[in-house]
Design goal:
Blueprint (H helix, E strand, L loop, with lengths): L1 H10 L15 E9 L5 E9 L9 E8 L8 H7 L1 H6 L2 E6 L27 H15 L3 E10 L1 H8 L8 E7 L12 E2 L2 E2 L1 H12 L13 H7 L3 H7 L6 H8 L5 H6 L12 E6 L7 H10 L12 E6 L13 E4 L2 E4 L5 H19 L9 E5 L4 E5 L8 E9 L3 E3 L10 E7 L31 H4 L4 E5 L7 E15 L5 E9 L8 E10 L18 E14 L4 E7 L28 E6 L7 E7 L6
Parallel strand pairs: 3-4, 3-5, 5-6, 6-9, 9-10, 10-13
Antiparallel strand pairs: 1-2, 2-4, 7-8, 11-12, 13-14, 15-16, 15-25, 17-24, 18-23, 19-22, 19-24, 19-25, 20-21, 20-23
């Protein structure tokens, strides 16, 4: 029960632990069923300060809509989780989205936005509007203003509240929102299928109306290897007819189904002030907040005084900003400290609370101009006029060179110089975290902090390549979007490409290898996400993709390392490395060991593009 309450606190956007004590009023709890336009009723729990319906200043609403159940929401959780907001006074509203827990109707995963031409045309935007209408009419002594906040799936419903927004919605905060679950969030990254996560999460949300989490005592590395492909694993769990699993199995490319679910294509000039929040070590939705910000920010007029989109990025895992002080991150297999700076507490106190206070109550104190980012290594907050920032930064390249060298010196000489080669064998894939690999949210799972696991546990393998600088004589700060640009060949007809940017600590600090940026690209999608193509065996191809945002200082005495590999199992399904139309059902005979060659020549200069501070110098 204690674990369930902690999880409920996260999904409600409420931390299980908070270091600050603030006096807050007593809250009165009520439950209602709100009927929306197509007759479906949505289970809603409301907390308001005792007596506020009859006296005192009118209060705004602060709402969250979730698939994870709201029955465990409590006044105590509000007071301990959002003390500044609770003390100030809000009408807190928590709602089960349609088809989940106490709400009627059919649940649809990341329900796409539809054209509202008939009464039966519903989506999360219409359910939000209808809920707001009801609240304004039925909750006494409200000030006519609504804020919407949420983390993860509730982050998705929060951004929905800002599309075709109800006039009363005055501020939203999508935090780690599920944005495009094929391009870069939960289920796929650049075409590579996030197998263990998809397997567990779809069962959690679609096999039941609640969210009991699958848990297995078997090492998931062994389980997925044994079942060969996702079709075999899904069949063993009896989940092949679950709606999203059916699409996994039949439509693994970026087809209309996935495109319709994407949020970023619906985002124009932000209709309401929007505070996007994300973590640099978010194991689920690190891409979403940056993608939504990138979709909206350029569409704001430069001379518009009503700046409406803001971004906060910090040293957190999924939802980590909403619990605890945020002065460290990690677990049994690696832990990084942020110099005692309570990044999460600072964010909640100086950015989140003032944001809602300003836009819902008109109180001064929200002074963020655009972006706030916590720079790890230096362990300090910075504020920028845009993301990625340009002033004070320059683009530089680090090249993958022979003899495991990572250098800022461009290659010269023969066009066919190989920087490294290795044999990738699907029968012995590279694990993405220490074994045994537990179910995603199973007992004892290391899922939440795997992105800060010490990478030494795989860096000595022969089926990957490492490139490292000498120990740095001066700090090097990387801030902005890191891009991998590989020139490579395979003896097969398909391959996966994983690149990690790693901070290697000095031997005196254990030689800890901290991933700073990392991402995967499935080779068949190198030219198009909608039209996969085989790779010609032996042909040199360019593979270019983003490793996403970074704000990190590599300190003197540390080394910068780039690691390249071709499997990340079982988080990502194995690429057979021989082209098949549908990897989800690839036969065992298709999985072949192949030789991977990475080039480092003047013609084929494999490299990373890094935005560094103007005073940074790489060897």
């Amino acid at each position: 029960m204690k674990r369930m309450l902690a999880c409920a606190a996260l999904f409600l956007g409420l931390p299980a632990v908070h270091s600050q004590t603030v006096s807050s009023p007593s809250y009165v709890r009520s439950e209602v069923q709100i009927t929306v336009r197509d007759g479906v009723t949505l289970h809603t729990v409301i907390f308001r300060p005792a007596g506020s319906e009859k006296s005192g200043p009118p209060l705004p609403f602060l709402m969250q809509r979730t698939p994870y159940g709201v029955d465990e929401a409590s006044a105590k959780a509000i007071a301990s989780g959002k003390p500044e907001l609770a003390a100030s006074g809000y009408i807190f509203v928590y709602q089960d989205i349609r088809g989940r827990y106490g709400s009627g109707g059919q649940f649809v995963m990341n329900r796409p936005i539809v054209k509202h031409t008939a009464k039966i045309d519903v989506d999360e935007t219409t359910d939000t509007r209808d809920t707001v209408d009801w609240l304004l009419k039925h909750e006494a002594n409200n000030n006519g203003k609504v804020g919407v906040v949420g983390i993860s799936y509730p982050g998705f419903t929060a951004i929905m509240a800002g599309i075709d927004a109800h006039p009363a919605v005055k501020a939203i905060s999508p935090q780690a929102p599920m944005t495009d679950i094929w391009l870069g969030d939960d289920f796929f990254h650049n075409g590579a299928f996030r197998q263990t996560y998809g397997y567990d999460y779809v069962q959690e949300l679609e096999a039941q109306k609640t969210d009991v989490r699958p848990s297995s005592k078997e090492d998931q590395f062994d389980f997925f290897l044994k079942h060969v492909n996702f079709a075999g694993a899904a069949s063993s769990a009896g989940m092949t007819q679950l709606p999203t699993a059916k699409v996994f199995l039949s439509q693994p490319s970026y087809v209309k189904f996935w495109q319709d679910m994407a949020v970023e294509t619906h985002l124009g000039v932000p209709e309401v002030p929007t505070l996007e929040v994300g973590g640099y070590w978010d194991q689920e939705d690190m891409w979403g907040p940056q993608a939504e910000y990138a979709a909206m920010r350029p569409k704001e007029a430069a001379d518009d005084p009503q700046h409406r989109v803001f971004l906060v990025l910090g040293p957190w895992n999924h939802g980590g900003w909403a619990r605890g002080p945020g002065d460290s991150l990690g677990g049994e297999f690696g832990k990084v400290s942020f110099g005692g700076v309570p990044s999460g507490a600072i964010y909640r106190r100086t950015i989140e609370a003032p944001f809602f206070e300003f836009y819902l109550k008109g109180k001064p104190g929200f002074d963020l101009k655009d972006t706030a980012s916590f720079r790890s290594g230096e362990n300090a907050w910075h504020r920028y006029e845009s993301w990625p920032p340009r002033q004070g930064f320059r683009d530089t390249r680090v090249y993958l060179a022979p003899d495991k060298k990572l250098t800022a010196t461009a290659p010269a000489g023969a066009y066919d110089v190989t920087a490294a080669a290795y044999v990738a064998d699907p029968a012995d894939p590279v694990p993405y975290r220490h074994r045994p690999v537990q179910s995603t949210y199973g007992d004892g799972s290391m899922w939440r902090t795997w992105l800060v696991e010490d990478q030494k546990f795989v860096s000595g393998r022969k089926d990957l390549a490492n490139f490292t600088t000498p120990a740095l004589a001066a700090p090097v700060t990387v801030t902005g979007d890191v891009v991998a640009d590989l020139f490579a060949a395979t003896t097969g007809t398909d391959a996966d490409w994983i690149v990690k940017l790693i901070d290697v600590y000095p031997d005196s600090e254990g030689g800890y290898q901290l991933m700073v940026a990392d991402e995967i690209l499935r080779g068949r999608y190198r030219n198009s996400f909608t039209a996969p193509q085989p790779v010609k065996a032996g042909e040199v191809n360019e593979y270019k993709w983003s490793l996403h945002g970074v704000d990190h200082t590599f300190l003197p005495g540390h080394r910068m390392m780039v690691e390249v590999q071709s499997s990340w199992f079982p988080l990502y399904d194995r690429n057979p490395q021989t082209y098949v139309d549908n990897i989800m059902a690839a036969p065992a005979s298709a999985y072949k060991a192949e030789t991977i060659s990475l080039f480092g020549s003047a013609k084929y200069p494999s490299h990373l593009d890094l935005p560094v501070t103007t005073d940074s110098s790489l060897p």
